[in-house]
């Protein structure tokens, strides 16, 4: 059996574009707005969500034939919450500053609709390998939006990338100014809207029919 | 066994919870040394920031041990408690948290900058959403502020959270805790307002409750150190 047949390929790559959790399904917006004022926390958040969705999917998929139906949401929550706690512990140990910037949002991965959505809709009905790919795909689909938004917000809002100054001093001398609005959450939603706009323009089949 | 039976459900959840608890306890055990080290460095950075020194996490430890000459606990009368001196993270002066009722006393850090002694005292209080805390660096005469550092658990970004930013913290330098020989602390007022008989700084517009929290913290938490500061005053008169 090949590692990637056409079905698993669709599972992995679909969420990156045509089935993107953020810009098509509009899930996980809350954290996408909150952590993207800088590139670094966006990247860390993206990695954290990729890991949590992938492993939560695998674990639930392995357990799917043993979970009592009445408590399946609780089981899913316990699995997700433990993975999130582990991620949070690791961040506290190895990336303390980033963990402080992400503050409550690492913990709030538990309530990220993408996760519960994938567990319910995919992992409960598919084997571990497709579930793993589905988790990676959805995590990345969420993550790349975060990184793009974080990139523009940090570049235009602080003039830096990964805390390194990229807008040259001479720009500021001739009157360029950082756009403070970029640091506020509303600009994140406008940026997400711009991404949706470009994305829909590229993918005609996603456009709703107008009357 | 029937997957939908009560017995199965109960056994399933018990086993699951035990496994998860063991897993998380193990992770915490393995990582806790590293986490505590990070927290200590973070605390050192905060104390250094109250002395207007911005040290990165890598430099903090070295800068801290170079600048902080001594640290100890004091009792209610503001007297140094014997046997509590030491600036390493294991010493009581560093590990004691304010408001811990079982603690022997309250920590004071002594720093030396350009030949002059500064005293750093911790503060803790409540903001709008959660706890706020900080460090106040006081000149050797026990009244004039040399620097201040504030941080918070989760105040509103853009509003209350700005107490942790330089424009707010910078206002404290040069203010006096004592006026006419009385401890009055420093008031945090609405921008534009004034207060008659105490020094004051501008609060955060739109962060009223957080600003009030800082005001209370300056009065109550720093008030605990009143005797200590008075002793410093008396010694320098």
Structural overview:
- The complex is a heterodimer of chains A (about 210) and B (about 240).
- Chain A is mainly α.
- Chain A has helices at about 5-15, 30-35, 40-65, 70-95, 95-100, 105, 115-120, 130-160, 170-175, 185-200; strands spanning about 160, 165.
- Chain A has one domain (about 20-205).
- Chain A contains ten helices and two strands, in the order ααααααααββαα.
- In chain A, helix 1 packs parallel to helix 8, helix 4 packs across helix 5 (about 95-100) and helix 4 crosses helix 7 (about 115-120).
- The longest helix of chain A is centred in the C-terminal third of the chain and has 31 residues, at about 130-160.
- The mean pLDDT of chain A is about 90.
- Chain B has about 240 residues and is an alpha+beta fold.
- Chain B is built from six helices and nine strands.
- Chain B has helices at about 5-50, 55-65, 90-95, 165-170, 210-225, 225-235; strands at about 70-75, 105-115, 115-125, 130-140, 145-150, 180, 180-185, 185-190, 200.
- The mean pLDDT of chain B is about 90.
- The chains are: A mainly alpha (about 210), B alpha+beta (about 240).
